[in-house]
Amino acid sequence: MLIRLGLEPVFGALTVSVVLLALTFSQHSSLLKSDEEKSLTEPPLKDVKNKDQKPAWLNSTVIFLGAMCFVAFLSEGAMLDWGALLLHDYKGVDKALSGLGYAFSRLPWLLCACLATK
Questions:
Q1: Fewer CB under 10 Å: which end of the chain, C or N?
Q2: pLDDT tens digit string along 17-49?
Q3: CA dihedral 78, 84, 87, 93 (to 10 degrees)
Q4: Quick one: pLDDT at residue 16?
């Protein structure tokens, strides 16, 4: 969108980076403290008695959820690509703006996700 307004790609990327950094710094008090993050990322102590134990990620539930995420993200990518082609080829939308159809289709999802967390 910034490039469409005549901004050079480098400055568009820098603008987005500055906005993301500003958002991160404005929300730093909500982020985890260093010791809390370490306690979440440290691997649990292994049970000495059971050395033949499988890794935790090799659980059938985890593999099933991973496959579901793969299919969901694959279908979202296809929706973005085919939606952009539809907007460009049949509706005459410029190539630079044809991906916005997917972005606008995600806005209701974002609204519902934000309202559901309250």
A1: C
A2: 899 899 888 887 777 677 776 676 666 665 556
A3: 180
A4: 85
Which of 86, 65, 77 shows the shortest CA–CA distance to 106? Answer: 77
Looking at residue 4, what is its pLDDT? 75
The CA R_g of the chain, rounded to the nearest whole Å, is 22
Query: Lowest mean pLDDT: which of 37-51, 53-67, 69-83?
Result: 37-51
